[in-house]
# Entry
Amino acid sequence: MKRFLSSMIDGRGFDIGLVSLPLAFLLALSGLPLLYNIAMSFQEVDMFSLGSFWRPFVGFKNYRDLFAQPETWPILANTATFVVASIAGQFLVGFSLALFFWTNFPGASWLRGLFLVSWVMPGLVVGAIWNWILSGDFGVLNFILREAGLIDGNIFWRSDPAFSLWAVIIANVWLGTSFNMILLSVGLSAIPRDLYEASELDGANVWQRFWTITLPMMRSSIGAIIALGLIFTLQQFDLFAAITSGGPNNASNVTQYWAWDLSFRQYDFAKGATISVIMIVFVMIASVVYVRSTRHEVRG
Amino acid sequence: MAIRGSAILGALALAGVSLFGLSAKAEDVTINVWSLDRDIQPAPNLISDFNKLNMGIKVEYRQIQFDDVVSEAMRAYSTGQAPDIIAVDNPEHALFSSRGAFLDLTDMIAKSTVVKTSNYFPGPLASTMWDGKNYGLPKATNTIALYYNKDMFKAKGLDPEKPPQTWDELVDAARKLTDPAANVYGLAFSAKANEEGTFQFLPWAQMAGGGYEHINSEGAVKALDTWKTIITEKLASPDTLTRGQWDSTGTFNSGNAAMAISGPWELDRMVNEAKFDWGVALLPVPEVGAERSSAMGDFNWAIFSNTEHPAEAFKVLEYFASQDDRMFKDFGQLPARSDIAIPETGVPLKDAALKVFIEQLKFAKPRGPHPEWPKISKAIQDAIQAALTGQMTSKDALDQAAEKIKAVLG
# Structure
């Protein structure tokens, strides 16, 4: 014991002390709510038992009930579509922009900075603006598409079940593009220029340089941005609230919005918690990808 | 008038006592009130007036946000921190009374010289009842009716003094008034996937003999079919499915819809914005002579059952009720009472509209009351949207809703 105490000043005990502080912090602020949420998904919770922890235990009933609901599978499928399409859109547009600004024309860094404006805007504001842009009768997007001769009649982006999920995806791609662009720009600028000079001397063309140098050197950046993208898109709530409210008839409903609706509009807290648990699994996968891709970076 | 008179007498008597230095500040009972009213709305103003009367009761006010009312109140109640008095949205009243969270006021109201249940419109009063007992008092009320653009009626050869009376007449008028070239829809309403959608649809079902307990009745199916006709023929914007009432009526004000179904909360905006002659008619019924029905909105007052001062809290509610005749004049809200005449505003269009709304209020029915209302409402919203988007027939959609509601009702 005495040895341990004296090692507090210099040695193992000090290290343990340093690590346990943030660990305790993490456990209190993230771990306990997480466990509480998981516990709640196995309990019968109603609004008046919210305040107490000891509630009737119902096993997997909440999970069974949830998957018996007709809207569950469509909503899970919507979530998958939303996540994949949003990440793909954000990444492709973000990467193209990052490459574009990498060419370093006059004013490039200044313009790149301007793109950050979208990242700074609160989701609800972005949602309200896209709500107008996507409006069926008087929306700007329809006007542009009509003038360009791409469509004959108006598309009711928010109210047509075939489009409503895509309406939110378009807004979300716009919202996340600049973040992707900035992170990928950082990754690009970390690639040593002499690699390109050497390959150019060896006669590699633009595509060959992109496939053999840029992409492999960007591996960790891309892994991180996709993992973060998964987390950010699974968090995206404001745009749904502002643009479609999950409608029409759940056509644009996703798990994160549904969890909120169940908990705070229908007061079915147990089911809301159950969906959150399902989502946690997906976020765990994203975290593993993220940690693995950044671990590579640290060794770098 | 009798109510107001006795309240003033009581107030004078108490004021007299305090003049003689008998008001004992130290013994003041504190009553906490929560509501969502802002500084220009009733609650904070009535409370500051009440505090000036020095009745030995000090009322403290806290404003809460609309979205937080229920969750905040539930958390406060379950941890013993609830206020004495709260204002809740009327479809959520039963949630609390059925679980014993609200105080049973039946006896106090029976003995009260200020509050008489017979003075209230039946709809708002019913929303405060559970199991035949009174668990609160209506705070204010509102309902929906049909706004129509008289200039457009004239332009399309319709009689502006004869607004549509039945569903068929409404659809016919909408067909005549719809003018895609001029960006004009015949009708604007809301079928949004939230409480607003239920609020707008339920009256239609009720007029045709349906209701939330039998949402798949023949009449309700016919009601939904009528809505479907309106949407599929583009007599109303397809965005009706995602737009709330405020935004939908906005298209009426700007001349992009010839008729709109909405409530009296639009009147001031319409007086300012609408550059045309308009009128208000009662909601059209399925056929001439059919039973009328309408939606009913706004909040109720209630006392939490764990209050330490039920008698004093009830006195505060009595004071609020005694001031109901100021509701419209000072705050632009409709009192939930049939014994109070709404004073003229001096704006002819508005005064004529208010008469219709007061008439419509007689037929206003509460949503529920049922403790699980949000789930019932969600089932109805999903059915409306499934039918209107053509994913299901009205009958199938309402059958599915009835199934879900049956599970909730148990």
User: Anything to note?
Assistant: The interface with chain B takes residues 47-52, 70-71, 135-138, 156, 158-161, 164, 243-251, 261, 264-268 of chain A (CB under 8 Å). The CA atoms of residues 180 and 225 of chain A lie 7 Å apart. DSSP finds 15 helices and no strands in chain A. The mean pLDDT of chain A is 88.
